[in-house]
Amino acid sequence: MPECFLCGNTDTTVQDNSHPYLLSCPICGQYMVPERFYDAICRDKHSEIHLPSGECISKEDIRYKGKCVAFERKLKGLDRYILVADADKEKYRKDGDFYPMGLNEFLDEFPKNHELLDRALLNLGRRENQRFGKKLFISAGVYASALFADTHDVVGNIINYLFSNKLIEIKTEHHSIDAWEIVITPDGWARIAELQRNSGELSDKAFIAMWFNNEKNGEIRGAIEEAVKGAGYKSIVIDEKRHEDFIMNQIINEINESRFVIADFTSIPEGKDKDAKLVNGVRGGVYWEAGYARGLKKKVFHTCRKDTQDRLHFDIEQINTLFWELEGNSIKDRAKFVNGLKQTIWAEVGKGPYCGRLGYN
After folding, report:
1. 208: helix, coil or strand?
2. Distance in angstroms (rounded) separating the CA atoms of residues 241 and 251
3. Alpha-carbon gap, residue 349 to 360, rounded angstroms
4. What is the DSSP letter of 111?
5. CB contact set of 323 (below 8 Å; sequence gap of 6+)
6. Domains of the chain, start order
7. Number of continuous H segments (helices) and E segments (strands) in the chain
8. What is the pLDDT of residues 246-281, one digit of tens each?
9. Which residues does 42 contact at the CB level (< 8 Å), separation at least 6?
10. DSSP state, 112?
């Protein structure tokens, strides 16, 4: 019998004539998974998946963490991905609505302990047709995933924590069926709004941090802006905006108001100006802007010209980076770079509000 790779739900439809398999689950949404992953967990009933790297991922992690992450993504409209081995992501990049995500990368979205209550509250606010004063029915079954819980006791503890912090009211507790009826309080909605503002979740803007000397960076600026536009967002480039404030205040304000940041870490050969002052080299401002955005828990996408990757600081060497190359004054395989960055944005933060509109993707 067909079942969901992530949660085991047997009401799932599986199109095994597509490669990878296309799954539609009422809990996890729509996604794709390679045949060997699906067979290992759902048909052969193995307890783990073996990745090409030699690493093993347990079925327990997939069915608990994976289900919770998938449910949250469905609530946010971020399903329609392809789950693959992290090392194989490039093989699955293609035009279309489905974008590749590494299985480890996917499971790493499960919240840390200090994030869990806020993420759970956000999920309650995202529930379909949720509005002020409406009762929510939470069971220890399906909707436990919205609270990142796997047992009745954990669901009850999370609900009690939210109640004790005056973020929800418990209207009814159904002990016989392990369920609760709750209402999000005004304080709860205020907290949800605060979290959305701080994460940039309500923003339609992307901040681009990079060198802005067109003679040095070829067409990378235009390519990044094209990818951002294709993903459905507006690009914010600091030298395109008129400002009278101290420039760092302007940068801080723009990053604060952005959904995410794209940082290009390309370096330029060092030299000296007419006053013998050292110029060019690694642009410290890009590192600062990327670090500031990370401190705000915003998503930061890294790009870099391939022939300068040896200048990347060791602190960011291990972070996934989309490399590009120059061919004359143009970007080699420009369309592939633009599509890869666009799909990465979709995978990490979702499609922007302008996606599909005239003049956008």
Report:
1. strand
2. 10
3. 17
4. P
5. 303, 304, 305, 306, 309
6. 13-107 (no CATH), 113-198 (1.10.10.10), 205-349 (3.40.50.450)
7. 12, 19
8. 567 778 878 888 999 999 988 876 655 666 565 555
9. 2, 3, 5, 8
10. P
